[in-house]
Specification:
With 283 residues, the chain is of the alpha/beta class. The protein is 40% helix and 17% strand.
Length: 283
């Protein structure tokens, strides 16, 4: 009798849990730009861009790859590189383990090869959902390996950047990645090969101060926050109030730090055209 009652309760609990998980048709997302609500289904079908005001939401790296590369062309590289917790920072290993389980990836960047408009490329995509795409030793190593692979195979590199900056749990090991990746970029450039960066929201800190701004061509998504130090730090240092558009992609374009702002819906087309124009570069 008790066993039957327990079994019924267990099944009822499972049913309730299943019912609690809403479908994409019922989950609502509020746009941070205009405040309008959309279902997750509507938002997803529009590439996570608000249909009303055009504000670009943050997306996962795997979604970015699907939107950018030709279907079925992606081949991941260097997926087995893992964080070693060099400083034995308290709680860091546990946090990384939880993020790996939740996200299904090893760290804050995914690297590999694929084609865009039929043109072979090396591609890297940083993911803000993994510790705000902070730059640690794994991010630096994977990107360095990607540029070295691209140099060896005479391929262009397309890198989607986003980051909260250097990962404090790795201290100096994190900061070293700025020079390390920049050196790999320089060798890639010396071989006469193309490097395109796409700045997405947010690209800040040491990533901005190094490889994010070293592209031969620098694109950005609309409204992306791009900068080094935070607004409050800068305002406190210089004693002035900064304009509302400060550290936005539009501000960068106006001041010559960005070549073009490209909506997500046109990103693959623009990348295809740029790659075709430089298709024989370095060969």
């Amino acid at each position: 009798m008790i066993i039957d009652l327990f079994e019924k309760t267990r099944k009822s609990s499972q049913y309730i849990q299943k019912q609690k998980k809403p479908s994409a048709e019922h989950v609502t997302i509020t746009c941070k730009g205009c405040g309008k609500e959309w279902t997750a289904q509507q938002y997803g079908k529009n590439s996570y861009v608000c249909p009303n005001c055009g504000a670009h939401g943050r997306i996962r790296c795997r979604t970015r790859l699907k939107l950018t590369l030709d279907a079925g062309s992606f081949q991941e590289l260097f997926a087995d590189i893992k964080t070693a917790d060099p400083l034995n920072f308290p709680g860091y290993a546990e946090k990384i383990a939880k993020l790996r389980e939740k996200s299904g990836q090893e760290d804050a960047v995914v690297t590999g090869t694929g084609t865009i408009g039929g043109i072979p490329v090396c591609i890297g995509v940083m993911d803000s959902y993994f510790m705000m795409a902070s730059m640690g030793s794994v991010v630096g190593e994977k990107l360095t390996c990607l540029f070295e692979y691209a140099g060896k195979h005479k391929m262009p590199v397309v890198l989607f950047t986003c980051s909260g900056g250097a990962r404090m749990q790795e201290g100096m090991f994190s900061l070293m990645q700025m020079a390390k990746v920049s050196g790999a970029v320089a060798k890639h450039a010396q071989a006469g090969l193309l490097y395109i960066t796409v700045l997405t929201d947010p690209t800040t800190g040491g990533v901005t101060a190094s490889f994010a701004m070293l592209g031969d061509i620098i694109l950005s998504e609309p409204g992306a926050t791009v900068g080094f130090a935070g607004r409050r730090v800068i305002e406190g240092t210089i004693g002035e109030t900064l304009p509302d558009t400060f550290q936005s992609a539009e501000f960068l374009l106006e001041h010559g730090f960005c070549d073009q702002i490209v909506p997500r819906s046109r990103m693959k087309y623009v990348l295809t055209q740029l790659l075709r124009l430089h298709q024989n570069k370095g060969r």
